[in-house]
Design brief:
The structure holds two protein chains of two kinds. By secondary structure, chain A is mostly helical. Chain A has 25 helices and two strands. Chain A has two domains: about 500 residues, no CATH class; about 70 residues, no CATH class. In chain A, strands 1-2 form a two-stranded antiparallel ribbon. Chain B has one domain. Chain B is built from 18 helices and eight strands. In chain B, a hairpin with a 2-residue loop joins β3 and β4. Classes of the chains: A mainly alpha, B alpha+beta.
Chain lengths: ~625, ~525
């Protein structure tokens, strides 16, 4: 029990004690880092002594209609490795934030990060679907608060709102899943769900799974609910690194893994299709981006797409391994991007790749780390991502998914190559910097952990001993993968300094997906406009703005109805009353005799009517 | 008469007693008048807390109950009618009474700004206090009606005299609407009176006691409501008419679309403390009345209308949210969001099963807390500059950091973000509604859209008003929350957090009542025994 509560307790202490410690003069960033370190070490201890038995905490949270909804947490072979990863990444990025945020009062930042760590941990270890939803929504809230951390930045505010609205829209699916599950089973406990998952009807299961998938698509930024993630890059870089590349967006993949037993065949197929679309779209987009954070964001989309695709068609455990290995690498890359931007004096809104080339850090180690991280992102042999990618690829059953996987991997190599080409490592004057500093500790740590040896003794293996469902392959199966990756890099290296590269680079942004489909959409809209022009100018405007402003327009319309129709009806009845009143007032002429006459007649009528001997 | 019953009666009548004492104070002594009102509130909160501590869980019946004869009308030997003074609490009314005590105290604190006719204001305020407490505690429909009506008159004056520029229009509108509702309820009561009673040695004795009325236990054979040989009026059974009258009457107070148009006007014109009472408590009396004196009296008829009620609920949720989205005035937006949130309560009631009722009563409590916060916050802005238009402000966080944090808490709470009470309330209503056999699954699924819409208007308001670069189109010093505002806002923020993180105790308090409710309204169980 304490093995679960201790790491959570550290996060909670961070949340509660940052303010008191600040009052006695301690830096909120340091306080948060120390508590996160405590949390990480207590988890590491649990991990090292883990024997495979789930550690369970089961407390009564509240009771509804005789059913107890439990606050149940389970630290098991599914949640422990991922939590360890989240805890480490959170620690590394929080520590690095001190460098990035610089001087000033950033208490709020660390408070929200602490809340996020609690929510993320709860999401991972929860063994009750209602609690999972609780944490799931809370994670979305933290994301909103962190994107809008700089509350002056109009772009960031807009992005934060879009992120939360899209997440909330996806969460409606989660609510539907909860409703179906409660109706079918009357419980939300993970173990009860597992044991009874065979007993409920096919339609219910499909609806629940589809709902859950909607929530996952929104949170993990899958097509077609992906647009918020690139926009979220307007937030601070540590936030992009932690939430929007490594941990929060991966929550959907974890959910696919944890609740895998709910997903029936057809929904898994749909999951695969969504993932495949996202990975290709993301890779294509990443290839055409001019900003470093946008490139990394679309790359994240692409990698998340791979994970979701594999969770649908192949082995979700492989997806979770890639979640971890990619998360470490991508977090490291974001930190490098942050360092480059800091050195070049660029803010989050002006991080064009071409301005970063010669402005980066001068230390030699920066070049080495950057090169290692970019190679790792592409799944280069000797890295953890190679192991996870092999694991994913070998779990895909059919040729078509494998082909998509390979295309996406090639796209990864191409856009990563672009990144390197722009950032120009090993060029310019090289000078030495202190090795251990706030700036470099986290990227170095994240890079080192991306090396194969921490995951699998065999550098050309597949998967990791942390994820036991892996099947071992002969070395000959690995060689094509090694060949493709190494060959592509070699080809890139050959092209490195040629004119061709520059020419392609010039035209790449023209190839953005939206550049291709927007003209079509525009042409269609214009045609439509011309057709409808003589019908009604206002309807036309409505069509042009339909997607964006539809809801608001409807709201205004209803507001109008409310004021004039419903209220008007009331006013009308008021007038009617006044009118009838004016008629009825006539007998009230102030003559006592008249009143008496009315009273007596009325009484007589009443008596006769009620007379009931 | 046990200790709890004494405490409850003290809770109800203390404000009235203080009001008598206030009569002897001079009109100009506004400070002492307000202090007396605050003192009343403090004592009431203490009493409510003691009641809460003494509460016995898992008890199905009423607690802190007292039943005494009040007056009776007789003709010779024949006892025609007896009204009882019957008050008590159960899982439905206890949360409401505690909520009322807290909200009335905060409203009294907020009333310090009243500067004209102070004595009249506080006298009416105290009468309103007693009336609200009595409404929630009464277990005799006649007594309930008396208290229910007694809320109307002070409220009319409190809006009409101490309100905004268009106050008399709003007050008259409020008065006419609720009076209309009350008349419908009165007509229903007369029919109920005719049809129930206890046959005694000297003929039938009529009564309005909740024990006699609930499930029409005291139904007289051969009367208009007898299901064996039903009386038809205009093609509908008399019992159907009674249910419709009661449901419409209470729906005005809830308020359900399309009977809601009094609410935005009343809110916009009322002063801050009155808005708070209106949203946090008066709307609840409607939902409370519908449950206790509508559904529970005629459970069979309720079953016929569950689907209709749920449609009204979903329309209220979506229509209210869309109107909130269209509102330029902060207070109007919050008022419409109340319509949407009370729509959730109505949805829970219409689902009728234990989970949904637990959720509905939880949501009533939660909305009481959250809407009080929202209206206080709107009042803060109005106090500073006199304008409540969202478009007049931007970047308020720079001038008012404390205000910003409470706005974020209140807005997130209203949005149903986990960790805040309405998350639990709405979720229970939705899962209860979906598992209800009386409603098609599409109804609660449609209602979820309301959650998304609420996120839409609340986040939009945050983006426009709170974040961004600072500017204000109106004059006025935008200073941060003062000590008094913190005093009223912090407890509410804490309450919604505590209920959102640990809803167990409150749900346990509600559970026995919810079970009783669903047993009465599930099919077959509701047929009168006699």
């Amino acid at each position: 029990m304490e093995t679960i509560l201790l790491p959570l307790g550290f996060y909670l202490s961070a949340l509660l004690l940052i303010r008191p410690f600040k009052m006695i003069g301690l830096n909120p960033g340091d306080v948060a880092s120390i508590f996160f370190l405590g949390s990480f070490f207590s988890l590491l201890l649990t991990f090292l002594t883990f024997k495979g038995n789930a550690m369970v905490l089961d407390l009564n949270w509240f009771r509804i209609a005789g059913t107890s909804i439990n606050f149940s947490l389970s630290l098991d072979h599914q949640s422990l490795p991922v939590w360890l990863f989240v805890s480490l990444t959170g620690l590394a990025i929080t520590f690095w934030s001190k460098y990035y945020l610089g001087k000033g009062d950033h208490e709020r930042f660390y408070l929200i990060i602490s809340l996020f760590m609690i929510a993320m941990a709860l999401l991972l270890v929860s063994a009750n679907m209602l609690l999972t939803f609780f944490a799931w929504e809370l994670v979305g809230l933290c994301s909103y608060l962190l994107i809008a951390y700089n509350r002056d930045d109009a772009e960031a505010i807009e992005a934060s709102r879009a992120a939360l609205i899209i997440n909330k829209a996806g969460d409606l699916g989660f609510i539907v899943a909860l409703m179906v599950i409660y109706k079918e089973l009357g419980t939300f406990g993970l173990s009860e769900l597992q044991t009874s998952s065979g007993h409920w009807s096919n339609t219910s299961m499909t609806i629940a799974a589809a709902g859950l998938l909607t929530a996952i698509v929104a949170k993990s930024a899958q097509f077609p609910l992906h647009s918020w993630l690139p926009a979220a890059m307007a937030g601070p870089t540590p936030v992009s690194a932690l939430l929007h590349s490594a941990t929060m967006v991966a929550a959907g993949v974890f959910l696919l893994y944890r609740f895998n037993f709910i997903f029936p065949e057809d929904i898994r197929h749909l999951t695969g299709i969504i993932g495949a679309t996202t990975t290709l779209l993301g890779g294509w987009n990443a290839l055409t981006q001019r900003k470093i954070k946008a490139l990394l964001a679309y790359s994240t989309l692409s990698q998340l797409g791979l994970m979701v695709m594999t969770a649908g068609w192949g082995n979700p455990e492989a997806s979770v391994f890639h979640l971890v290995s990619h998360g470490l690498t991508k977090a490291g890359l974001f930190l490098m991007a942050g360092i480059w931007m800091m050195e070049a004096g660029k803010s989050t809104s002006e991080n064009e790749l071409e301005h970063l080339g010669n402005a980066g850090p001068k230390a030699k180690k920066s070049s080495i780390i950057l090169l290692m991280l970019t190679l790792m992102l592409t799944g280069f042999p000797l890295s953890a991502t190679f192991l996870s990618k092999e694991f994913m690829l070998s779990s895909l059953p059919a040729t078509a998914p494998r082909l998509i996987f390979i295309v996406s991997s090639l796209l990864t190599i191409l856009y990563t190559g672009r990144l390197l080409w722009y950032l120009k490592p090993f060029s310019g004057s090289q000078q030495e910097e202190r090795f251990f500093s706030v700036k470099w500790a986290s990227p170095i740590l994240l890079t080192i952990l991306g090396v194969w040896i921490f995951w699998n003794v065999n550098p050309l293996g597949s998967g990791s001993h942390l994820f036991p469902s892996v099947t071992h392959h002969p070395l000959s199966d690995m060689l094509p993968g090694v060949g493709i990756i190494a060959g592509s890099w070699f080809a890139l290296w050959l092209l490195w300094n040629t004119e061709l590269f520059q020419t392609i680079e010039k035209y790449l942004p023209e190839l953005r997906p939206e550049r291709l489909y927007l003209p079509v959409v525009m042409a269609l809209t214009t045609a439509l406009q011309k057709i409808t022009l003589f019908i009604d100018q206002k309807i036309l405007d409505g069509i042009a703005n339909l997607i964006g402003y539809g809801t608001v327009t409807l709201a205004h319309l209803i507001g109008f109805l409310d004021r004039f129709l419903v209220d008007g009806f009331i006013l009308l009845s008021g007038r009617l009353t006044k009118f009838t009143g004016s008629i009825l007032r006539r007998p009230m002429n102030g003559q006592i005799a008249g009143y008496l006459w009315w009273t007596v007649t009325g009484l007589m009528l009443l008596l006769f009517w009620q007379w009931n001997p | 008469m046990n200790l709890n019953a004494i405490l409850l009666n003290l809770l109800i009548f203390l404000p009235l007693a203080i009001a008598v004492a206030m009569l002897f104070l001079p009109n100009g002594d506004s400070k002492r008048l307000q202090q007396l009102a605050v003192l009343t509130g403090v004592v009431q909160v203490v009493l409510a807390v003691v009641l809460l501590v003494n509460w016995q869980m898992n008890v199905k019946g009423y607690q802190a109950e007292i039943a005494a004869p009040w007056f009776s009308v007789s003709s010779g030997d024949r006892m025609l009618f007896s009204a009882g003074y019957h008050v008590g609490l159960d899982g439905l009314s206890l949360p409401m009474v505690v909520l009322s005590a807290v909200v009335m105290l905060l409203a009294a604190i907020l009333s310090a700004k009243v500067n004209s006719q102070v004595k009249g204001y506080f006298l009416l305020f105290q009468v309103l206090n007693t009336a609200i407490m009595g409404t929630f505690a009464a277990l005799d429909m006649f007594l309930f009606y008396v208290f229910f009506e007694f809320m109307l008159i002070p409220m009319y004056f409190l809006i009409g005299i101490w309100g905004g520029p268009n106050r008399s229009y709003a007050a008259v509108k409020f008065f006419l609407y609720t009076l209309f509702g009350s008349i419908l309820i009165l007509v229903a009561m007369i029919i109920l009176y005719q049809s129930t009673g206890e046959p005694g040695t000297f003929g039938i004795s009529h009564s309005f006691d909740v024990e006699v009325l609930t499930g029409l236990k005291g139904l007289l054979p051969g009367s208009a409501l007898d299901p064996v040989n039903p009386t038809l009026w205009f093609g509908l059974r008399a019992s159907t008419w009674v249910f419709l009258l009661l449901a419409t009457g209470f729906a005005i107070k809830i308020p359900a679309v399309p009977l809601h148009t009094w609410l935005p006007d009343a809110h916009v014109e009322a002063s801050t403390p009155i808005s708070v009472i209106l949203a946090a408590l008066l709307l609840k009396t409607g939902a409370y009345g519908l449950i206790r004196f509508g559904v529970l009296i005629l459970p069979t008829e309720f079953q016929e209308f569950q689907f209709t009620l749920s449609i009204v609920a979903v329309v209220s949720i979506i229509y209210g949210s869309l109107n909130a989205l269209a509102s330029a005035d902060l207070k109007r937006m919050i008022a419409y969001s109340s319509v949407a949130h009370m729509g959730f309560v109505l949805l829970g009631i219409s689902a009728g099963n234990t989970v949904a009722i637990q959720g509905a009563i939880f949501q009533m409590t939660s909305h009481g807390i959250i809407s009080a916060m929202l209206f206080i916050l709107a009042g803060v802005i109005q106090d500073r500059t006199g304008s409540r238009l969202i478009g007049h402000y931007s970047g308020l966080y720079q001038k008012m950091p404390g205000f910003t944090s409470i706005v974020l808490i209140a807005f997130f709470a209203a949005m149903g973000i986990p960790g805040f009470s309405s998350f639990i309330g709405e979720l229970l209503i939705l899962i209860g509604g979906f598992s209800s056999t009386a409603l098609p699954g599409t109804i609660p699924v449609l209602a979820t859209i309301g959650i998304l819409l609420s996120a839409g208007y609340l986040l939009w308001t945050i983006s426009r008003m709170i974040f961004g670069t600072f500017h204000s189109k109106v004059e006025g010093d935008l200073y941060d929350l003062n000590k008094k505002e913190w005093t009223v806002l912090l407890p509410l923020a804490l309450l919604t957090l505590v209920l959102g993180i640990y809803p167990g105790p409150l749900l346990d308090v509600i559970l026995p009542f919810a079970e009783k409710f669903s047993a009465l309204t599930s099919i077959g169980a509701s047929l009168p025994l006699k």
